[in-house]
């Protein structure tokens, strides 16, 4: 009865695994590491957003240049007078137009007549002049064009320089997002390989232990071994099932996370090509570069660009004290009427051209205090950069030490795997000849499983540390090409 139960569990387990493999092989997306990186760098939303940010900064740069070009505005205005303006004329106006203030020899008789008449209208007598005259009409319309252009505005020039640095910063952030995504893809790809390899180790162990249990059960039926051996072998076989299921769950989680990073649908069947063993020989051909000056590190480059931005802002604050010169031109048509009979309106032109000079004198100390803020921000960035640089150098050293330690562990684990397999074969033969116990067999089998898992974990640790090292130094560490 127990034998049937074990067979049923084995068949169920492997049928579920086989069905998953068959379902996955149908229309599956087969990928290696390079393919995963290519898909992620073209489909991941984070990278797309970073590229859009560069385009946005390009438009901002063009906008900064546009501030130096002439600005044209069409102007239309309507005003309704509620109370018209009242003006007053002193007695001197009447004397001037009446002849007291002019030379009669300079004008024709007709012009003298008009001037005398107007003079009487303005000031026929002193008492009448005190009442004033209302000027203008109820409706006033204005339409025309206004043109303005900065001639000397230093802050605009500095703003253009800031926009150029801003584009460089956006490009560096886009590069940083690609480096970060590459690091995440690599580590998740290696995690999936580790889960797959661990699953294969547990399945292989389960198969061997199933055959071993049947052999022990057969020998028990023959009266060669005790029932304790059957029970021990049965317990060991069943204890492997949670490990197999856990490794399957790890595979699913790693696969879903890899799909998310790649920017593909979670329902897309995915099949990863290769195993961690494929990276065993390559890891010994990799030489960590001696240059760890962080020249290509994206975080340091972003700090330097941000420092340039703050420096430009500081210089712009200083230029707020400089004078500015702006030219303007207006060409307008005006009409004043007391009714709304538009066809009878008369439009009179009015135009001006001028230059405006502004010299900053005092604005409550705002310019001075803004300048001091920029100085403090420059100092803050300098101190922050020192702290980040220390942390990155420590990360380089830690990753280098971890890579070296992992390489040593791989070599040691390879030897441990060979010795564990040899010890397992010896304990099996001793058990078959009656010189050994089932406990020794189980212990040897457990040692083989642990050694194989440790070997694959050592490779994964090396690849993970290598990926982190590449992220810090800012470029991929390639293996040395061997010359045949």
Structure description:
This protein is of the alpha+beta class. Helix 11 packs antiparallel against helix 12. It is elongated.
List the helices and strands and how they pair.
Layout: H1 2-25, E1 29-31, H2 33-43, H3 45-66, E2 71-80, E3 85-87, H4 91-98, H5 109-122, H6 126-129, E4 133-135, E5 139-152, H7 154-221, H8 227-262, E6 270-272, H9 280-283, H10 298-319, E7 324-337, E8 348-358, H11 366-432, H12 438-473
Parallel strand pairs: 1-6
Antiparallel strand pairs: 2-5, 3-4, 5-7, 7-8
Could you provide a short overview of the structure?
The protein has 484 residues and is α+β, with helices and mostly antiparallel strands. 65% of the residues lie in helices and 13% in strands.
Question: Which descriptors apply to this entry?
Answer:
alpha+beta, Outer membrane efflux proteins (OEP), 3 domains
- The top level CATH class name of the largest domain: Mainly Alpha
Structure summary, number of beta strands: 8
Mean pLDDT rating: 83
> What is the N-to-C order of secondary-structure elements (H for helix, E for strand)?
HEHHEEHHHEEHHEHHEEHH
Number of alpha- plus pi-helical segments? 12
């Amino acid at each position: 009865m127990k034998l049937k139960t074990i067979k049923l569990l084995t068949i169920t387990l492997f049928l579920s695994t086989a069905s998953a493999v068959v379902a996955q092989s149908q229309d599956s997306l087969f990928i290696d590491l390079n393919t995963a990186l290519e898909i992620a760098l073209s489909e991941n939303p984070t990278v797309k957003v970073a590229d859009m940010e560069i385009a946005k900064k390009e438009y901002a740069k063009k906008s900064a240049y546009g501030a130096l070009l002439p600005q044209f505005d069409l102007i239309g205005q309507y005003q309704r007078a509620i109370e018209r303006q009242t003006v007053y004329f002193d007695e001197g106006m009447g004397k001037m137009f009446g002849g007291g203030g002019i030379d009669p020899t300079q004008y024709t008789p007709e012009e003298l007549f008009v001037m005398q008449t107007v003079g009487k209208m303005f000031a026929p007598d002193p008492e009448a002049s005190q009442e004033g005259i209302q000027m203008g009409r109820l409706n006033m319309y204005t339409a025309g064009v206004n043109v303005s252009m900065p001639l000397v505005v230093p802050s605009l020039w500095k703003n253009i320089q800031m926009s150029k640095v801003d584009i460089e910063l956006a490009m560096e952030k886009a590069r940083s997002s690609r480096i970060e995504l590459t690091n995440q893809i690599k580590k998740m790809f290696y995690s999936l390989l580790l889960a797959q390899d661990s699953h294969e180790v547990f399945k292989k162990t389960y198969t061997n232990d199933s055959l071993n249990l049947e052999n022990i059960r057969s020998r028990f039926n023959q009266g060669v071994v005790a029932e304790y051996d059957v029970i021990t072998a049965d317990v060991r076989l069943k204890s492997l099932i949670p490990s197999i299921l856990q490794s399957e769950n790890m595979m699913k989680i790693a696969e879903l996370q890899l799909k998310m990073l790649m920017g593909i649908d979670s329902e897309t069947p995915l099949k990863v090509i290769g195993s961690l063993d494929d990276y065993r020989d390559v890891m010994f051909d990799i030489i960590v570069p001696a240059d760890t000056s962080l020249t290509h590190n994206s975080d340091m480059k972003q700090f330097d660009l941000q420092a340039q931005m703050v420096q430009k802002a500081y210089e712009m604050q200083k230029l707020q004290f400089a004078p500015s010169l702006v030219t303007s031109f207006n060409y307008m048509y005006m009409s004043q009427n007391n009714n709304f009979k538009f066809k009878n309106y008369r439009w009179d032109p009015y135009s001006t051209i001028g230059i405006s000079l502004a010299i900053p004198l005092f604005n409550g100390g705002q310019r001075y205090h803004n300048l001091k803020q920029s100085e403090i921000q420059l100092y803050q960035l300098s101190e922050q950069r020192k702290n980040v640089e220390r942390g990155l150098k420590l990360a380089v050293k830690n990753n280098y030490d971890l890579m070296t330690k992992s390489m040593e562990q791989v070599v040691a684990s390879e030897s441990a795997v060979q010795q564990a397999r040899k010890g397992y074969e010896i304990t099996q033969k001793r058990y078959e000849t009656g010189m050994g116990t089932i406990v020794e067999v189980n212990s040897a089998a457990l040692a083989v499983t642990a050694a194989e898992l440790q070997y694959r974990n050592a490779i994964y640790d090396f690849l993970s540390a290598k990926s982190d090292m590449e992220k810090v130094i800012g470029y991929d560490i390639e293996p040395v090409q061997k010359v045949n």
